[in-house]
Amino acid sequence: MGLSERQQRMYAYISHFTVDKGRPPTIREIGAHVGISSTSVVNYNLNVLVREGLIAREKEVSRGLRIVNHTGKSMLPGIGVVQIPLLGKIAAGQPIPVPEAGIAPPDEMISLTRDIIQEQEGLFALHVKGNSMIDALINDGDVVVMKKQESANNGDMVAVWLKDEKETTLKRIYREPKRVRLQPMNPTMKPLFQNPENVEIQGKVLLVIRQLQKQSAVKI
Amino acid sequence: MGLSERQQRMYAYISHFTVDKGRPPTIREIGAHVGISSTSVVNYNLNVLVREGLIAREKEVSRGLRIVNHTGKSMLPGIGVVQIPLLGKIAAGQPIPVPEAGIAPPDEMISLTRDIIQEQEGLFALHVKGNSMIDALINDGDVVVMKKQESANNGDMVAVWLKDEKETTLKRIYREPKRVRLQPMNPTMKPLFQNPENVEIQGKVLLVIRQLQKQSAVKI
DNA sequence: TTATACCACGAACGCTTGTTCTGTGTCAAG
DNA sequence: CTTGACACAGAACAAGCGTTCGTGGTATAA
Question: Is there a catalytic annotation at residue A132?
Fold first, then answer.
């Protein structure tokens, strides 16, 4: 079942208006733009758009419209974007910079969509420096997005500070009797066993991003 | 001039609400959340936020709020969001699904910000299936974003189909006299040399995304 | 013809929501 | 002490806004 030309214009207008103004339009605003004098007609066609799965409506709420895709997820660019502070670098030989709860103004923010990162609180991002985390399948230049926390679930990928070794490492963590097993991401590599007193969890790794577009050179 | 704790909570609430619901909150919704019974007090504090340059208001418009940055530009509706079709899986033993220029309706779209991906044309995304690309530092479950192309620059990370081996692999590619060098991402691994006739470039890898949030289990 | 969707118009109702006005209490400057 | 800026509460008004109801025109099928 297709859309009428009028319904298509309504949909386009809702999209543009929402992105442009930062809020959805009202029924009367839609009507004025597509040339409908009656609010009930707009209402009628909006319900058609809902039936087609293009928008969602909230009842009895002003501007209670939103653009959705067929899975019901909010789709409009900009709605599901999270800003994460890029705090600095992470390297094997030094503690990672953790976010000061307060007002440390980050040099840089990185925007990520909700498609990629679900959580929002306590997130920060770090550039990986050096090749020391190859065993975690993490390379020089990668960006890791972490959540600050001092504990973790078994199997979580965490950044730990090994006190004796004075070293940061990224591993999956498993609590075992009297010891902690630090399992490299690379399944071909052997786990590392540590005394629980020696490991200090810095945060949980939620996301690894690798961009491969910094080369120039010749066509082959 | 700083913000009061109440004003900070108002600002945070407006941000979260707008992102979450796709529309800004009303004055009364703000008041209810931060514990202000009077709409005039909310109005008063909103004007403070305007004076501080954190939000912009439109007069006599319902939900006429928006988060702005200090340049006055709307900040939440990030302009730079790219939608990329998630076409399927990539595995060692089979050719990768390439996007039909036409109408192949993608099951799923993935939204990425311009912070992460700069290009826009000819992009598609694939789920990595299996552990065969560990040597490219790519794991089971990762998502790779590729650009469809048949040629590549030296040093590009490409997906190649090895005809004789009937195998897909992700490597950095270098043209050398009479042969092609396929260099694993992992610097500890040896390169692979191939006859140019045997390699068929499927596309260039621009981005690798790894999400690590699919485990449950016990607190340690 | 009648029936039945489908699409449209106008009007009215009532809750929603931004705005404004009056009043109160606090605190530092004069 | 007085003054004025600041922060807040409560109430009332008017416009904004979603909803509903009655009506009518135009197709297509029975």
Answer: yes
Nucleotide showing the shortest C1' distance to residue B25 CA: C17
Q: What is the pLDDT of residues A109-138, one digit of tens each?
A: 677 777 778 776 788 888 888 777 777 788
Residues of A in contact with B78 (CB under 8 A): 77-78, 81, 111
Q: What domains are defined for chain A?
A: 5-67 (1.10.10.10), 81-209 (2.10.109.10)
Chain A partners of B19 at a C-beta cutoff of 8 Å? 79-82
* Segment among A54-68, A118-132, B90-104, B117-131 with least mean pLDDT: B90-104
Residues of chain A with pLDDT under 50: 100-107, 215-220
B219, pLDDT greater than 80: no
Question: What pLDDT sits at residue A81?
Answer: 64
- Provide the shortest C-alpha distance from residue A167 to chain B (in Å): 21
How is residue B147 written in tokens? 């650009």
Residues paired with residue B194 on neighbouring β-strands, in sequence order: B180
Looking at the partner chain, which of A112, A205, A215 has a beta carbon nearest the beta carbon of B113? A112
Q: Which of A38, A73, A111, A132 is catalytic?
A: A132
